[in-house]
Specification:
Layout (H helix, E strand, L loop, with lengths): L13 H8 L4 H7 L4 H8 L1 H14 L2 E12 L5 E10 L5 E4 L3 H4 L13 E3 L2 E4 L4 E4 L9 H8 L6 E14 L4 E14 L2 E2 L5 E2 L9 E10 L5 E4 L3 H7 L3 E9 L2 E8 L13 E6 L4 E6 L8 E5 L2 E6 L4 E6 L6 E6 L15 E10 L5 E9 L5 E9 L6 E7 L9 E5 L8
Antiparallel strand pairs: 1-2, 1-25, 2-3, 4-5, 5-6, 7-8, 8-11, 9-10, 11-12, 13-14, 14-15, 15-16, 17-18, 18-19, 19-20, 21-22, 22-23, 23-24
Length: 420
């Protein structure tokens, strides 16, 4: 009988194993978690996860693209919309991304990714791992009882409601992902029609409509929201109501371009937008003015700082010292003049949309051929613009129909951060 000699492979020392695993991209790492409990423990270790995130930045950032296609018709005869996602690397190579069905069938505003994670309404998605989680329920509205009591037995004469918005950020001091929630709660008189159809408001004990603002923050990995205090002046300004144009997280601060429903006292007559900044470490809000006479085509990270790009003004505005009053520095753009709304014919023109920046410092632009009458995108090309050399290179072509400008965002890195 043949004897088979079994030899045990000596275990790899942990320090050497860590050095080997550190050189691997995300996909093999995710597979290797099932090799053994020891490997799983190393790859899940917070220090290893943080190190992987930092190394991902060194490997370069990617572009996340969402494209629309039409699915089956509904009973009402409407075409259903299906969203497909892909990732484009710095060399222009495109790879499809598998996403949960809820993201394929749900529209959400696509803001810049935050250290590899993407906020999708009330969901957090990790494109690297394919994992997705629901945000936990927030605390009960602190103003609901007060409003109910004030309306009292005149409830039928008022209506109330609430509007809320989530913002995703990364706290660089604690190395934690955090979600900010801002909620506006209001009640107001219902208009009453007289016999002559004139609308008027009957006077009651409550003299004015009321709007209340409150904010909460959630640290990802926990299951509880914490109420935040808001400076009185900021609270008064936000209580006028506002809409959010875009949002991003840079160096521990969430920046949002907002449009107040009523002009703030510090805004000039020509200004309609401003910046709401939130420091994730100190949990402090700040309202900042934009540069005068600037149109915001893009607001996000450029060279590690918050910046605004004004395409037709041909300038980049870079923000410094956001929580010390804010200071803007202007940088001129020198690109191909043929990019900017060049007319190809009576029916077609060229439009330029900034979409962000690369790790190498290039600013990325989507240049699209547009049908003048309908606004339909006939095909887009992504270019990289070097701010120092003023050189322009083509990154890739997007021949398929793209929904709108917020369907392409830059700054995506790989992360193996667990969402639980």
């Amino acid at each position: 009988m043949i004897q088979i000699k079994r030899t045990l492979v000596p275990a790899i020392p942990d320090d050497i194993l860590v050095q080997i695993l550190e050189k691997l991209p995300a996909k093999p790492l995710l597979r290797f978690k099932s090799v053994s409990k020891s490997w799983y423990s190393i790859i899940e270790d917070q220090e290893f996860v943080d190190g992987f995130r930092l190394r991902s930045h060194n490997r370069g950032t990617n572009i996340l693209v969402r494209k629309i296609r039409f699915g089956k018709r509904t009973v009402e005869g409407q075409n259903t919309r299906v969203y497909d996602f892909s990732v484009i690397d710095s060399e222009g190579q495109s790879v499809p991304v598998a996403v949960p069905n809820i993201l394929k069938n749900t529209f959400f505003h696509l803001d810049q990714p935050v250290e590899g994670l993407v906020l999708c309404n009330n969901l957090i998605w990790n494109p690297t791992t394919g994992k997705i989680i629901d945000l936990p329920p927030r605390n009960p509205n602190p103003y609901a009882k007060e409003i109910s009591e004030k309306m009292g037995n005149m409830r039928e004469c008022y209506h109330s409601g609430a509007w809320s918005k989530y913002f995703l950020g990364f706290d660089v001091s604690s190395k934690k992902y955090k979600v900010l929630s801002i909620c506006l709660t209001w009640f107001e008189r219902k208009p009453i029609r007289a016999n002559n159809d004139d609308i008027f408001y009957k006077e009651f004990d409550i003299n004015e409509n009321q709007v209340h603002v409150h904010a909460e923050v959630l640290t990802l990995g926990t299951n509880s929201w914490k109420f935040l205090s808001i400076d009185y002046s900021v609270q008064q300004d936000l209580s006028k109501g506002f809409t959010v144009k875009t949002s991003c997280s840079i160096n521990g601060v969430i920046y949002s371009i907002i449009t107040p429903h009523s002009k703030l006292p510090v805004m000039s007559s020509s200004e309609s937008e401003c910046i709401l900044a939130f420091d994730l470490s100190h949990e402090k809000f700040q309202l900042l003015l934009l540069p005068r006479r600037v149109y915001v085509d893009f607001a996000g990270e450029i060279g590690g700082r918050f910046a605004i790009i004004d395409v037709y003004g041909e300038r980049i505005w870079i923000l410094e010292e956001a929580f010390e009053g804010g200071r803007w520095t202007a940088v001129d753009l020198f690109w191909a003049k043929s990019w900017v709304r060049m007319k190809l014919s009576e029916s077609r023109l060229i439009e330029v949309y900034p979409i962000g920046s690369c790790q190498n410092g290039e600013i990325l632009f989507r240049v699209s051929e547009i049908v003048s009458s309908s606004g339909q995108d006939l095909g887009s090309t992504i270019f990289g613009y070097n701010m120092e050399s003023k050189d322009v290179r083509m990154v890739t072509k997007l021949d398929d129909f793209v929904d709108d400008r917020d369907s392409i965002v830059s700054g995506l890195v790989e992360t193996i951060h667990p969402l639980n």
